[in-house]
């Protein structure tokens, strides 16, 4: 059985990647890359432990009870560990966490628990008899179609469907594919009779990446009905303007995105990426590229996050949006997925630069090292702090995407073409590339060096290394010699130029790192501090209990952080370095990496005094 599933996984991997025909470079499978000891590995381990602790029965409870399948004695109301928050039986979005967990468990290869979950979902689907599957009744879908008030039912279906697809493609679970196909059959039959007016009305409701998931299902099955559904979810009102703008000569400028809900908008373009990958639609690629570049270059804060209270805003008013509700983590989760796709089409260090910025300064710090809980927003106001979820009474969207984010840190460290290996991130890790072992040993960002050792069967005898030259580096050395980047922002090192040590090819890379400033886009006196790519924050008062209160309705969205005075400085000489990433600031204020600042209020954007104020 295990051997059969391994063969299925291998065949599926070959099948799936063969359908990314437009890619110039390819990502590696997650199973090809192993994290070595680091903060990333620690986050992943905490994430894994939380996933393991959630009972399968609890995850299936709302699915079973809604469908009329036996859940537990008397429906489990006294015997079941109930999941609260957005997984409550009276929440329209219930079931989304199960989908996220199916994906996260596929990344982590947690097969036994995932298999039990898939079997339970298959039982629920059989009870309905139509292919329909969710933790809520089909009436919510009908309300969506009718344009009546309902909270994003296809958003939840996207999570479930993609989780099943991931279980099939990464773990070889054939039942997961059967259930996914059932969902595809049902949604085709449900939507096929609708006219254009009904379609336009219903897709105004948030549907996540349901279009992308249906493209994925089509890519696996070659069933044209699933392709029809994927294109049914093409959102003309949002994507057509991007296509029209991207066809013009704009000299690299962005586009006005208004006040769109960021996490509703971004996943739509992941579907456009699949349309490009499968059919070579250049308009889809250009639209996705334009959205990414506009968000990264015009909207992103220093941490890589892009929204305030979930919405976009005018870039020229950025300093007005340093609030307690910045940076919905789901937005960055999806923007990093978009970055990975765009990098495959045209490798460019600027894409990897953003990935590094957002990964270290937003995603890595989402998780509380003490409790494993995660935050919804990452406030950037002075005096703000991270408000964390509870273990079983929150289950917000950012808890679900967080389960995935912290389970796949290895996804964008390396990319490859036939004989070229791109090293994008400086994270301790070991890559197995068809028997060629690439081991990256580093303490970055605490250290300014990383070492890459290549061994194994060395089947890639003409291997070329492409090392990212980071935008923040004041210089870069490879094996002691200063190097320059090519037009793509990478330093190319051919295998014959590498050193040999103990039978291994060897490259030691060193970066120049320095303390530097980045102001907001509209106020040069509102400044963030960085050391290399790492955002530094000043540690203010300790917060005794920085956790959500389940008794309060979505308190992450309404919490009053109070009013706090700006923290000012005159020049970078006001900061004295005590360790590579720690400084003493004005009045001996402790300054350290933002990703390490938990259970405290903080300052990220400082007030820099003008010469006339000093």
Overview of this protein structure:
The protein has 614 residues and is an alpha+beta fold. It is 38% helix and 16% strand. It is built from 17 helices and 22 strands. It has helices at residues 2-18, 39-53, 56-67, 96-108, 111-128, 139-146, 153-171, 174-191, 196-202, 210-221, 224-232, 236-246, 262-279, 282-299, 329-345, 349-363, 397-405, and strands at residues 26-27, 33-35, 414-416, 420-423, 429-433, 436-442, 449-456, 464-468, 476-478, 481-482, 490-494, 499-501, 504-511, 515-519, 526-531, 534-542, 568-569, 576-579, 582-584, 590-593, 600-603, 605-608. α4 (96-108) runs parallel beside α7, α4 (96-108) packs parallel to α17 (397-405) and α7 packs parallel to α10. The radius of gyration is 24 Å and the shape is globular.
Describe, in short, the structure shown.
This protein is of the alpha+beta class and 614 residues long. 38% of the residues lie in helices and 16% in strands. The protein contains 17 helices and 22 strands.
Distance between the first and last residues' Cα: 73 Å
The tally of strands reads 22
Please give the oligomerization state of what you see. Answer: single chain
> Are there runs of 5+ residues with pLDDT below 50, and where?
none
Class of secondary structure makeup:
alpha+beta
Number of helices: 17
Largest sheet: 9 strands, mixed
> What is the residue-averaged pLDDT?
93
């Amino acid at each position: 059985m295990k051997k059969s599933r391994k063969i299925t996984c291998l065949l599926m991997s070959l099948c799936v990647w063969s359908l990314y025909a437009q890619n110039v470079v390819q990502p590696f499978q997650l199973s090809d890359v192993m994290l070595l000891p680091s903060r990333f590995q620690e986050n992943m381990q905490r994430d894994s432990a939380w996933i393991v602790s959630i009972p399968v029965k609890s995850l299936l409870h709302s699915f079973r009870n809604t469908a009329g399948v036996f859940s537990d004695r008397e429906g489990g109301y006294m015997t079941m560990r109930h999941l609260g928050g957005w997984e409550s039986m009276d929440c329209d979005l219930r079931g989304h966490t199960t989908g996220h967990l199916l994906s996260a468990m596929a990344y982590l290869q947690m097969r036994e628990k995932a298999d039990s979950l898939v079997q339970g979902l298959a039982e629920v689907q059989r009870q309905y008899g139509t292919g329909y599957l969710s933790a809520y009744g089909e009436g919510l879908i009908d309300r969506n179609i009718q344009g009546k008030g309902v909270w994003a039912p296809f958003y939840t279906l996207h999570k479930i469907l993609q989780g099943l697809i991931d279980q099939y493609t990464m773990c070889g679970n054939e039942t997961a594919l059967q259930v996914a196909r059932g969902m595809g059959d049902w949604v085709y039959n449900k939507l096929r009779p609708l006219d254009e007016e009904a379609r336009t009305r219903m897709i105004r409701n948030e549907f996540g990446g349901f279009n992308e998931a249906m493209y994925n299902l089509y890519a696996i099955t070659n069933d044209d009905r699933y392709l029809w559904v994927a294109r049914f979810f093409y959102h003309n009102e949002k994507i057509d303007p991007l296509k029209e703008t991207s066809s013009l000569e704009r000299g690299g400028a962005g586009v006005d995105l208004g006040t769109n809900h960021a996490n509703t908008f971004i996943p739509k373009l992941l579907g456009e990426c699949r349309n490009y990958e499968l059919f070579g639609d250049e308009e889809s690629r250009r639209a996705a590229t334009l959205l990414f570049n506009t968000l990264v270059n015009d909207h992103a804060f220093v941490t890589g996050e892009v929204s305030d209270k979930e919405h976009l805003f005018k870039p020229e008013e950025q300093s007005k949006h340093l609030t307690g509700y910045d940076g919905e983590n789901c937005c960055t989760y999806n923007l990093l997925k978009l970055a990975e796709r765009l990098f495959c089409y045209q490798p460019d260090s600027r894409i990897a630069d953003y990935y590094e910025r957002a990964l270290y300064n937003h995603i890595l710090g989402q998780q509380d090292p003490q409790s494993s809980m995660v935050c919804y927003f990452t406030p950037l106001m002075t005096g703000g702090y991270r408000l964390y979820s509870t273990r079983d009474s929150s289950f917000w969207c950012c808890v679900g995407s967080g389960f995935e984010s912290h389970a796949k840190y290895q996804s964008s460290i390396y990319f490859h073409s036939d004989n070229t290996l791109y090293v994008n991130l400086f994270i301790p890790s070991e890559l197995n590339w068809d028997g060629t072992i690439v081991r990256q040993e580093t303490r970055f960002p605490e250290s300014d060096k990383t070492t890459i050792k290549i061994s194994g069967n060395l089947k890639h005898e003409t291997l070329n290394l492409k090392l990212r030259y980071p935008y923040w580096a004041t210089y870069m050395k490879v094996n002691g010699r200063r190097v320059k980047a090519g037009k793509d922002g990478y330093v190319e090192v051919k295998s014959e130029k590498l050193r040999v040590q103990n039978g291994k090819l060897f490259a030691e890379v060193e970066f120049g790192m320095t303390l530097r400033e980045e102001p907001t886009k509209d106020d040069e006196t509102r400044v963030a501090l960085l050391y290399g790519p790492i955002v530094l924050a000043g540690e203010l008062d300790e917060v005794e209990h920085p956790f959500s209160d389940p008794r309060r309705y979505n308190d992450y969205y309404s919490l009053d952080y109070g009013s706090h005075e700006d923290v000012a400085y005159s020049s970078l000489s006001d900061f004295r370095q005590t360790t590579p990433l720690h400084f003493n600031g004005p009045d001996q204020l402790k300054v350290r990496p933002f990703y390490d600042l938990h259970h405290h209020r903080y300052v990220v954007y400082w007030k820099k005094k003008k010469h006339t104020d000093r």
